[in-house]
Amino acid sequence: MKRGRGRTSRIRRQKLFRSSVSRGVNESCKPEFIEFKKWLKDRKFEDTNLIPACFPGTGRGLMSKTSLQEGQMIISLPESCLLTTDTVIRSYLGTYIAKCQPPPSPLLALCTFLVSEKHAGDQSLWKPYLDILPKAYTCPVCLEPKVVNLFPEPLKAKAEEQRARVQGFFSSSRDFFSSLQPLFSEAVESIFSYSALLWAWCTVNTRAVYMKHGQRKCFSPEPDTYALAPYLDLLNHSPDVQVKAAFNEETRCYEVRTASGCRKHEQVFICYGPHDNQRLLLEYGFVSIQNPHACVYVSAGWNQLCS
Ligand SMILES: C[S@@+](CC[C@H](N)C(=O)[O-])C[C@H]1O[C@@H](n2cnc3c(N)ncnc32)[C@H](O)[C@@H]1O
């Protein structure tokens, strides 16, 4: 028998292929991750299970250092690391939010804080987190209209709706931004530009976890359910895994437990929800190749064609 044609070498080749597909390139030595880890440690979070890595197909994500058993905690992120509307109210923006009429939405408060802290650069206490956030996003709202025109019809309509919603969000926020002028030496129009707000909106939309806060008078009545969870937000989506994720009121940590287990040196995924590819593209800017929730949208007119 020729070398490399037998069962053993076939199995070895398959294993090698599997690991080259799923194995990531460790990114924890990159300067921005070294700073980010120090920042997390100062806020009482140290990770023993995972490391940031870049994976073929899904891009940057988190890789397991050891095998993870079903039910094992994968991340327990202290409240001090979370960026919520509480963080914003406690900041220099708090008094401006309290004075603002009509009151801003919780989403606007978070986006304003992100833009303002990004503008603060080295002065920002959140710099190590801001430095690891994507510089640009791939959600349809960020794409050129000529690209959106190439989408199939139901998706194109949703993408145009999304663009109109974000543009409306920007125009209706201008008065609030103007009220913040005393905080800045530059003109607020140059800081809170459409592109800066779009970046912040995509950051919240693609990365925030669900965390319910009670209604507060200083905000408009939209639900206050967003929390940016640094580090945890490096976890990519797979429709095939199950996790339990929630804020634990006793430990005061946002906890994620795997219900699926994961082998050593493989990418650890969470599930963002049972979303089809249209929803994944609209909300998160990607599609899942083997998506069990993939579906075809059929418009009402098809009934008549079939009858
Ligand atoms: C919560 S973040 C996850 C971490 C992100 N990959 C990063 O580098 O910061 C969500 C974003 O990750 C990307 N993403 C998540 N799951 C993915 C997947 N299965 N395939 C491709 N991209 C994915 C999308 O860009 C999505 O908007």
Automatic annotation (TrEMBL):
One of its GO terms (molecular function) is histone H4K20 methyltransferase activity. Residues 48-273 form the SET domain. GO terms for cellular component: cytosol; nucleus. Pfam families: SET. InterPro entries: SET_dom, SET_dom_sf, SETD3_SETD6_MTase, SETD4_SET. This is SET domain containing 4. It comes from Neovison vison (American mink).
